[in-house]
Specification:
alpha+beta, eight-stranded mixed sheet, 3 helices, globular
Length: 117
């Protein structure tokens, strides 16, 4: 599995104030979308999320987002290594993702930028 980078996941109360800060910090415009009642802004290596606490509670369990070349390859590599895929692979606004539980209890999201067939 080829890992291309990581994204830090941050749950925020005031998305607009946080977007302004991180856009200024990175000199990068936010890519915004909605997912399951949560407003999301991707800015550089930061993924800001704001929404109902019931939704954020689940999202906080995911330690980081890991960009990979291909989610299907990640799925196979994770399974071979002993991880349990607990969600996905599924299409997202930017490609595909899956959520995996590592044997040590860590939970990570794996994403690619490939369009779903």
């Amino acid at each position: 599995m080829e890992i291309l980078g990581t994204t830090l996941r941050i749950c925020v109360d005031d998305l607009e104030a946080s977007v302004a800060f991180y856009e200024g910090l990175t000199d990068t415009p936010a890519l915004r979308f909605e997912r399951g009642g949560v407003s999301v802004a991707a800015i550089g290596c930061f993924l800001l999320m704001s929404g109902p606490e019931s939704e954020l509670e689940v999202l906080r369990k995911v330690s980081a987002t890991i960009a990979v070349k291909d989610v299907e390859e990640a799925n196979a590599a994770l399974t071979r290594a002993g991880a349990k895929v607990i969600a996905g692979p599924v299409p997202t606004p930017a490609g595909r993702n899956l959520i995996a539980l590592h044997p040590d209890g860590s939970v990570f999201e794996y994403v690619d930028r490939r369009a779903s067939a």
